[in-house]
Design brief:
Blueprint (H helix, E strand, L loop, with lengths): L10 H9 L7 H11 L14 H12 L11 E4 L3 H18 L3 E4 L5 H9 L4 E4 L1 H6 L1
Parallel strand pairs: 1-3, 2-3
Helix pairs in contact: 1-4, 2-3, 3-4
Length: 136
């Protein structure tokens, strides 16, 4: 297995992963992370639990800037289901501890008001389902 630091991930993210007991990349992460860091588009197909979310989230957040107050998003992630949006949001939130990015997840089935308020404060990464994105 390959260590995250060997893939070019920043020291801050590597330290956050290490605090969670994660030091080695999964095969999908090993293949995807260097490509994402180079700015390449990827498509990854793998079983649930293989680290696909982190495979794109870690390097994307490593390169993502920070929006000023009341600006953004700088990155948009559109996903078909509320459950997947929330899963991606959880991974991004964990990494934001070290990267200091503002992550906002907007999905249907929840009140508009808190989601709109969060967006109005500014966000670096917006994770959304298509329906809620259109609604907002």
């Amino acid at each position: 297995m390959t260590m995250f630091k060997e893939l070019g991930i920043s020291q801050e993210i590597c330290e956050t992963l290490a605090k969670k007991g994660i030091r080695e990349a999964t095969p999908v992460q090993e293949k995807a992370i260097p490509l994402v860091l180079k700015g390449r588009d990827i498509i990854a197909a793998a079983q649930t639990g293989t680290g696909k979310t982190a495979a794109f989230c870690l390097p994307a957040m490593d390169k993502l800037g920070h929006a000023r107050k009341e600006q953004g998003p700088l990155m948009l992630v559109i996903t078909p289901t509320r459950e997947l949006a929330q899963q991606i949001g959880e991974v991004a939130d964990q990494m934001a501890v070290s990267t200091h990015h503002r992550i906002t997840t907007v999905v249907g089935g929840l009140s508009y008001k808190p989601q709109i308020e969060r967006l109005s404060r500014g966000t670096d990464m917006l994770i959304a389902t298509p329906g809620r994105l259109i609604d907002l």
